[in-house]
Amino acid sequence: MNLARDIMTIACVSTGAFFFLAGTVGLLRFPDTLTRLHALTKADNLGLGFVVLGLLPQAEGLRDGLKLISIWMFALLAGATVSQLIARAVRRSGAR
Amino acid sequence: MSGSSGQRNVPAGTITRGWWSSVASRAVGFGCLWLVLAGAQVGDVPAAAVAIAVATWTSLYLLEPGSSRRSLPAIARLASLFLYHSVVAGIDVAGRALNPRLPLRPGFVAYPTRLPRGVRQNVFTTLTSLLPGTVPAGEENGQIIYHCLDVTQPVLADLAAEEAALIRALYND
Amino acid sequence: MTEFLTAAVGLILTLLALGLVSILRGPGDADRMMAAQLIGTAGIAVLLLLGTVTGVRAAVDVALILALLATFASIAFVKKGLSRLESDGVGSAEGK
After folding, report:
1. What residue spans define the domains of chain A?
2. Best residue of B99, B146, B147 to probe chain A, by most A CBs closer than 10 Å
3. For chain B, what are the domain ranges?
4. ipTM, 2 dp
5. Pick from A31, A37, A43: CB nearest B94
6. Do A37 and B36 touch (CB under 8 A)?
7. How far is the C-alpha of C81 from the C-alpha of C96, rounded, in Å?
């Protein structure tokens, strides 16, 4: 039982770290501001999601788990809102 | 969402009752959020009461209770679609970033939306900012401008499907 | 398990630092705006992992506050910085 939990944690946290890696690579390689914004918001949000999913089996009790999930949902919503605000600002400032 | 505001035909006299029921359901929602974030301790009750009251007032100020019917199965489908899309979007971006040839064809696409400006359109742009390869970047002449990583993808069809799911879930009036 | 999670913290922190370098090097203000976004996702992931590794449960609360502050910082930047970006004129925000 404990082993299964640990395996799930290792698998999910590794997947999350992979998406953070991909997000940073995108940040370094993508050519302009808006494409870098894609890399940052999408890959990193998914990375955070997988890290949270991996930490759930290690949480002590239901409340800790729900707290992790609510933090993740907040970060997801905040990322979705902020990314479009930044994109709008970039477009209005004349970058094409 | 507010589960108890699902009456079929709302006569004029019951509007205040519908309003109070959405106040109550929002307060209960914020109360649950407080319990999750801060835990249940007797000493916290005054702080919790103030926080819940302020949160409920703010939410009523920013987002007035709507009258449109909300269907729970459709909301669940929308939520799962949202999660699925955010996973696909992350994999899509990761694949492009790690691909040695860097397959990008960035550009802007205009999407003519049926949703009225305001809260509904903002909900839609927030939802679609997690679609694979698109970020909403403003609005022009009633069309939403999307920045796309790859303009050769069927972006408009995806957006139309997302809009239909949103209307079924929340704005079915 | 602790060793693995600590390694994940190190990896994500390294990626966060790399991302910050590329953002601060970036040509325009909009690129720098994304730093808050990056900290808002990768930083939260690091804090949540650290909270589990060390057993300090307050780290989760810190992560929540960080998520809130990162969001408000981005929104304030867009609201406040937009007029400045616009008065800068076309092109200077993107730098190319």
Report:
1. 2-92
2. B147
3. 3-62, 72-169
4. 0.85
5. A43
6. no
7. 20
**Which of A42, A68, A86 would you mutate first to test chain B, the one with the most B CBs within 10 A?**
A42
Whether residue A41 and residue B138 make contact (CB cut-off 8 A), yes or no, is no
The domain tally of chain C equals: 1
Structural domain containing residue C20: 2-87
**Is C31 among the domain residues?**
yes
Kindly tell me if the per-residue pLDDT of B5 is higher than 70. Answer: no
Contact C22 A10 (CB under 8 A): no
pTM comes to: 0.82
Cβ A17–C41 below 8 Å, yes or no?
no
Please give the structure tokens belonging to residue C85: 């970006």
Domain-located, residue C93? no
Q: What is the pLDDT of residues C20-76, one digit of tens each?
A: 888 777 677 777 778 778 887 888 999 999 988 888 888 889 999 988 888 888 888
For B153-162, the CB contacts below 8 A with 24+ separation are B155/B109, B155/B111, B155/B131, B156/B109, B156/B111, B158/B131, B158/B132, B158/B134, B159/B111, B159/B128, B159/B131, B159/B134, B162/B81, B162/B85, B162/B124, B162/B127, B162/B128, B162/B131
- Under an 8 A CB cutoff, do C22 and A28 touch? yes
B134-140 and B107-112: which strand pairing?
Answer: unpaired
SS3 track for chain C: CHHHHHHHHHHHHHHHHHHHHHHHHCCCHHHHHHHHHHHHHHHHHHHHHHHHHHCCCHHHHHHHHHHHHHHHHHHHHHHHHHHHHHHHCCCCCCCC
Set of chain A residues whose Cβ sits within 8 Å of the Cβ of C25:
none
> Among positive and negative, which fits the CA dihedral C61, A58, A17, A76?
negative
CA distance B135 to chain A (A): 6
Nearest C-alpha in B relative to A90? B137
Q: Report CB contact under 8 Å: A39, B36.
A: no
